[in-house]
Give the backbone structure.
Amino acid sequence: MEEEEHEVYGGEIPDEGEMEGDIDAHNADVDVDMATNDDDAVKELDEMKKRLKEMEEEAAALREMQAKVEKEMGAVQDPASAAATQASKEETDSRSVFVGNYTAMKFLFLFVANG
């Protein structure tokens, strides 16, 4: 009966010591592969951190440039033109009428009906 079982498995059943050695060799291969994968992941993470830092530096430079341009644009406007702009806004406001709670469709009917 035991002979038949060995034939079913295709040979002798290995001893416990032989099986543990095979597992240890396999685990060593897995450990090497995982170490390689860990090294690759660390390198990739370092590259991503470096790229993020570069992007943050570029964003800071762009913010500085934008602030500089806005400051120059504010300095370019002289007080006379600023006063003229304010006067123009007040004149426009004096000729304007606020109409609330009207939709575009209501305005359309109003103007069509009144020519």
User: Anything to note?
Assistant: Residues 82 and 91 are 14 Å apart (CA to CA). The two ends are 109 Å apart (CA to CA). Helices lie at 2-9, 16-76, 79-94, 104-113. The chain has a mean pLDDT of 76.
